[in-house]
Design a protein that fits this description.
The protein has about 160 residues and is α+β, with helices and mostly antiparallel strands. It has helices at about 25-40, 50-60, 65-70, 80-85, 100-105; strands spanning about 85-90, 95-100, 110-115, 130, 135-140, 145-150, 155. The chain folds into two domains: about 5-110; about 110-155, no CATH class. It has a three-stranded antiparallel beta sheet with strand order 5-6-7, with no helix packed on it. Strands 1-2 form a two-stranded antiparallel ribbon. Strands 3-4 form a two-stranded parallel ribbon. Helix 1 crosses helix 2.
Amino acid sequence: MIEPRPSEIDTSGVPLVGTLGRCETEVAAALYIEVCKRRGDRWQPIRPREVGETLKEMTNEEPPPDIVLSLRIVMPDFFALTKCGAVTMDGEHGPVCATPLLFERLRRYTVMVCSKDRPMPKDAPDEPMWVCRDRAPVVVDGAVTGEQCSHCGRGWESEG
């Protein structure tokens, strides 16, 4: 499975409902994703200090992101996130790192974007969903007959 970028996982609303068993675990996963999003949109080890810094940044945004509003009623549980196998944690205050299980559990909240550096595979499964944004017209005998992705070659016929 190709790993999604953090920005390709939807953490809006009540984040990641029904993916990791408990809302405290799901909010912890959403926080991990948000920190990775804001620190280069790549998966990386994060420390508790970085979570705190990111929360401080988000709290000052207007309007605050949904995850900040969730924290008013739910306490994130990074230990439960570790226990379910979605992340690894090196000691009590060590960095948190994503595992393949996290990506598997979050498939229904993931929309991956086909790009030059990561085209959609020919055998892409239905989940995670892929979108092709760089579409070019397909012209046959001077008429536009559809569109084709510039990266993966996937095509769509014109309606009508």
